[in-house]
Write a structure and sequence with these properties.
Layout lengths: L5 E7 L13 H12 L13 H18 L10 E5 L12 E7 L8 E5 L2 H6 L13 H11 L2 H4 L11 E5 L13
Antiparallel strand pairs: 1-2, 1-3, 2-5, 4-5
Length: 182
């Protein structure tokens, strides 16, 4: 079984860790997206023209669901990590870096989880029971007992869009010392 006690953040060395498009104005975020689209080798270069709008809607939905489950998000948008390692995500960047933080450093009311990336979790309508929902720490640990870690059974994405468990960090207290645009 994979380490379920560590959260991982993957990022482009040039941009810095926890550099979040959602923290930027629409105009600045679109400029960053346009810059990323210029390099077809990057995973982010494949994003649609409506990416930013969809992202903000999906994040807002996740926040509302988390609040309904007792979450106490401070931010209006999350920073993303994975539960357990996904070293292949570093290949999505020119010079991908990895940061590891113990899950127990975070207050339970400040982190939510999706079984898979937030986008397909909230948008795919394929009838899988973990779609359209965010989970608390105890809930995601139960889900892992039932389904396992997607990065173990679907690292290449051949069995659907869930390739890892995404963690949404709704408070910058812990990540603040690691965060920043370069």
């Amino acid at each position: 079984m994979m380490s379920e006690h560590y959260l991982y953040h993957y990022y482009e060395s040039e941009r810095g860790s926890f550099a979040n498009l959602s923290s930027l104005s629409d105009e600045m975020a679109q400029k960053v997206i346009n810059d990323l689209k210029r390099d077809s080798r990057l995973f982010a270069s494949q994003r649609s023209e409506t990416y930013l709008t969809i992202r903000r809607e999906v994040e807002s939905t996740a926040r509302a669901l988390f609040i309904m489950k007792g979450g106490k998000p401070i931010n209006h948008y999350p920073h993303n990590m994975t539960l357990g390692p996904c070293h292949w995500i570093k290949d999505w960047y020119r010079n991908g870096q990895e940061l590891k933080i113990a899950m127990d450093e975070f207050e339970d009311q400040s982190i939510s989880f999706t079984y898979g990336d937030l986008f397909p979790t909230m948008r795919y309508k394929d009838g899988k029971p973990y779609r359209g929902n965010v989970y608390t720490k105890p809930e995601i640990l139960d889900l892992i007992q039932q389904y396992g870690f997607p990065q173990e059974w679907n690292a290449d994405g051949s069995h659907g869009p869930e390739r890892y468990i995404e963690v949404q960090i709704w408070d910058e207290t812990i990540i603040g010392k690691y965060k920043g645009w370069k």
